[in-house]
């Protein structure tokens, strides 16, 4: 079935391309992790930043470097590896395009990073106007996006080539999933490209005096929400396809996996308003519509949870497990390639529940702009997704460098995962709790010119610092593991685990690959959810604000 066309090894030339991106991702982990440590220490109120470094500056480093750089580089590399091994080695032309993409992304990253370090771009990672950065920061991030389009183009070209060569056969599942993610990414990044090119760049160059802030935030969130699923879907690729193989089980259903990815394509984009529920300028009816669509996009995650339980249970029972939860004991707890992503899955249960709370219009009033939200995305992105990426690293890096994951490193990897779980329980738990008490996010406290601290938040801020310090230790351990797997582990062959279909599953219907239908519905839903609100935001921009409407 899906495995018949699978080669056993990623081509060496493709492997270099993938590794280049993974190197950048881990450098980002080091820098971003350090910034994170400084942040929790400052917030504990017991530490001052040296050398005139600003709180918002390190916050921007942390958000941009981990939220945008680590993720985009790792994801591009991982997806390219998946496509290369399941749909075939990239042609020279495809690989060259991907390399140009890599270099554009890298140059862009350096430009943005330099401007942040010079304190010319302390605009947080959502770069909300009217906060303004140096134009080189915006230009740098534009290059990152354009570079990622080229990396995506290589994936699309490979898919098209495979499609032509195999008419009437469903594409390999991992390739299909990577394709959906890049299609979603391209449609989503049009929003951020629009605000950067048409609004923020001309404004930061002084060509226009002001920008329509409502429009710029709306365009950002048109991109910002699918951005979080662009992070999530590669983790889902591993959960659906890689994990079953690692535990020695089977993929529960190929069709269900494809269907959930298609639902992400359709419903990820027209939901950005759930980040703007408290913003003026958008009619409540449109906010309501997007809240409803947000609850629709929860369905493919529930399908994923169902499918994972089914995989685990079927596997356990095949090993003779009895009772409701007997299968749980049968899972390979000593294998870091499974156990570390599993911690991620586990954290995604409360993380997802928190998301539902955020999305519920009334409850959003309680949590919005509090540090609860920071707690939410440290469970989703910084635990569920990131621990899955680490789990992938444990086999992908040695696979590509011709080395093996030794028993000793596997053990360290398990310790790393457990440390992460402990650190994050403290940090994210305290963030959720302090958020409910009203502690603001993204706010330096009084000594940095921010809000005064309420006494009742302080114990939670200390717990955050404790958790954050444990997380920093885990990051150091992870970097050690990465360097070992990339340069020092013994030579050998490490498997690229790709799950096989359960024999009970039906083959996937070809309608899943009718991109005219899926892209058509995607565009229609976007137009439906956004056209009138955009017209409103542009036509009803506050009158009399000098130059406010210079731009839209
Ligand atoms: Fe979110 C804010 C709503 C998912 C990331 N989110 C953020 C921000 C980030 C972020 C970065 O509606 C802050 C942005 C900023 O800086 O302002 N989020 C949701 C909803 C979901 C959701 C409804 N978010 C994510 C994911 C992220 C992410 C995924 C990153 C990867 N989020 C919001 C809202 C806000 C928000 C509002 C704005 C808040 C505000 O006011 O500013 C859903 O997609 C979640 C669905 C998930 C589930 C869980 C399914 C569980 C699974 C695991 C199964 C486990 C197994 C193993 C099988 C329903 C799949 C267990 C085995 C055992 C034996 C137990
Ligand atoms: Cu969102």
TrEMBL record:
<feature type="transmembrane region" description="Helical">
    <location>
        <begin position="336"/>
        <end position="357"/>
    </location>
</feature>
<keyword id="KW-0408">Iron</keyword>
<dbReference type="InterPro" id="IPR033943">
    <property type="entry name" value="Ba3-like_Oxidase_I"/>
</dbReference>
<dbReference type="GO" id="GO:0020037">
    <property type="term" value="F:heme binding"/>
</dbReference>
<dbReference type="InterPro" id="IPR023615">
    <property type="entry name" value="Cyt_c_Oxase_su1_BS"/>
</dbReference>
<feature type="transmembrane region" description="Helical">
    <location>
        <begin position="220"/>
        <end position="243"/>
    </location>
</feature>
<feature type="transmembrane region" description="Helical">
    <location>
        <begin position="255"/>
        <end position="273"/>
    </location>
</feature>
<dbReference type="InterPro" id="IPR000883">
    <property type="entry name" value="Cyt_C_Oxase_1"/>
</dbReference>
<feature type="transmembrane region" description="Helical">
    <location>
        <begin position="172"/>
        <end position="200"/>
    </location>
</feature>
<dbReference type="InterPro" id="IPR036927">
    <property type="entry name" value="Cyt_c_oxase-like_su1_sf"/>
</dbReference>
<keyword id="KW-0349">Heme</keyword>
<dbReference type="Pfam" id="PF00115">
    <property type="entry name" value="COX1"/>
</dbReference>
<feature type="transmembrane region" description="Helical">
    <location>
        <begin position="54"/>
        <end position="76"/>
    </location>
</feature>
<dbReference type="GO" id="GO:0016020">
    <property type="term" value="C:membrane"/>
</dbReference>
<feature type="transmembrane region" description="Helical">
    <location>
        <begin position="293"/>
        <end position="315"/>
    </location>
</feature>
<feature type="transmembrane region" description="Helical">
    <location>
        <begin position="458"/>
        <end position="483"/>
    </location>
</feature>
<keyword id="KW-0813">Transport</keyword>
<feature type="transmembrane region" description="Helical">
    <location>
        <begin position="138"/>
        <end position="160"/>
    </location>
</feature>
<keyword id="KW-0249">Electron transport</keyword>
<feature type="transmembrane region" description="Helical">
    <location>
        <begin position="20"/>
        <end position="42"/>
    </location>
</feature>
<feature type="transmembrane region" description="Helical">
    <location>
        <begin position="97"/>
        <end position="118"/>
    </location>
</feature>
<feature type="transmembrane region" description="Helical">
    <location>
        <begin position="517"/>
        <end position="535"/>
    </location>
</feature>
<feature type="domain" description="Cytochrome oxidase subunit I profile">
    <location>
        <begin position="22"/>
        <end position="552"/>
    </location>
</feature>
<dbReference type="GO" id="GO:0009060">
    <property type="term" value="P:aerobic respiration"/>
</dbReference>
<keyword id="KW-1133">Transmembrane helix</keyword>
<dbReference type="InterPro" id="IPR023616">
    <property type="entry name" value="Cyt_c_oxase-like_su1_dom"/>
</dbReference>
<keyword id="KW-0472">Membrane</keyword>
<comment type="similarity">
    <text>Belongs to the heme-copper respiratory oxidase family.</text>
</comment>
<feature type="transmembrane region" description="Helical">
    <location>
        <begin position="377"/>
        <end position="397"/>
    </location>
</feature>
<keyword id="KW-0679">Respiratory chain</keyword>
<keyword id="KW-0812">Transmembrane</keyword>
<dbReference type="GO" id="GO:0004129">
    <property type="term" value="F:cytochrome-c oxidase activity"/>
</dbReference>
<protein>
    <submittedName>
        <fullName>B(O/a)3-type cytochrome-c oxidase subunit 1</fullName>
    </submittedName>
</protein>
<keyword id="KW-0479">Metal-binding</keyword>
<feature type="transmembrane region" description="Helical">
    <location>
        <begin position="418"/>
        <end position="438"/>
    </location>
</feature>
